[in-house]
Amino acid sequence: MRALVLLSGGIDSALCALLAKKEGRRVGALTISYGQRHAIELERARRLGAAMGLEEHLFLDLPPEVFANSSLTNPSMSVPMDRLIDASIPSTYVPSRNLVFLSLAAAAAEGRGIGEIWIGVNALDYSGYPDCRPEFLAAFEAVLNAGTKAGTEGQPVRVLAPLLRLNKAEIIRAGHDLGLDFSLTWSCYAPAPGNRPCARCDSCVLRARGFGEAGLLDPLTAAGSGGGV
Questions:
Q1: How far apart are CA 197 and CA 204, in angstroms?
Q2: Closest by alpha carbon to 11, among 124, 101, 122, 138?
Q3: Residues linked to residue 4 through DSSP beta bridges, in sequence order
Q4: Helices and strands, number each (H, E), in the chain
Q5: Which of 15, 130, 159, 215 could be a cystine partner for 141, CB 3.0 to 4.6 Å?
Q6: Are 29 and 63 in contact (CB under 8 A)?
Q7: Residue 200, helix vs strand vs coil
């Protein structure tokens, strides 16, 4: 069985790739540039892919104009700092990003005869994004298999989100157990000069909390060079 992982350069997607390999899958990855201000994650994804020996690693570039009205793509907007993370949807939400990413992954997977798409979304420790919920994933899988040749011919493509019900500490422990090199990952939404984490955006806060609750040291934070969800 072959699997295509949406690999962002962060801990969650990297763990998905390791889990897929553990399950005996032949793993490829898709990494997408969409004008994100934390573009360092693209290089981290490249390094992770090389370290994990992926079968194939695709890189796609999307124009940032596609994703308007997000503080991750619009330089005139500020990334929220020191926010109380709750069910509200912050400005770092990128409109329909996972819908677009999964659609691109579906096209790449179907064209290659790949039967599984793995995505590292999480519905517990996250920033309230609607495209990280189980309802969205189930609906997307249904649409995917209703509108593709593979689905209509009885070879449906599955969408797998193995981290969906895990909290960040559980994810980090699982990554540690599988030997994930956390120093290769990234997540800070608003990197400071020198690619240092801001330590104040949602992603930095969730990462720090996860490592603390897991009882593990974040090698990038300890080294003063960044972090990744």
A1: 7
A2: 122
A3: 28, 117
A4: 8, 5
A5: 159
A6: no
A7: coil
d(CA 113, CA 1): 10
Q: From CA 179, how far away is CA 222, in angstroms rounded? A: 18
Q: Could you tell me where the DSSP H helices lie in the chain?
A: 11-22, 40-52, 97-112, 134-146, 149-152, 168-177, 202-214, 219-223
- The conformational region for residue 195 under phi > 0 = left, psi -120 to 50 = alpha, else beta, is left
CA 99 to mean position of chain CA atoms = 13
**What six digits make up the tokens of 204?**
């930095």
CATH topology of domain 2-180: Rossmann fold (3.40.50)
97 half-sphere exposure, CB direction, 13 A CA radius:
26
Give the integer Cα–Cα distance in Å for 161 and 124. 13
2: β partners:
26
Give the position of tokens 């996860």. 210
* Sequence-ordered list of residues with C-beta below 8 angstroms from that of 17, at least 6 positions apart, any chain: 5, 7, 27, 29, 48, 49, 52, 54, 118
Give 153: exposed, middle or buried? Use CB within 10 Å, 0-12, 13-18, 19+: exposed
Q: Is 200 a residue whose pLDDT tops 50? A: yes
The one-letter amino acid code at 119 reads: I
Residue 165's CB is within 10 A of a number of other CB atoms, namely 11
Rounded to whole angstroms, how far apart are CA atoms 48 and 40? 13
pLDDT surpassing 80 at residue 224 = no
Where do the structural domains in the chain lie, given as residue ranges? 2-180
Amino acid at the residue 117: I
223 pLDDT tier (thresholds 50, 70, 90): low
pLDDT at 95 over 50: yes
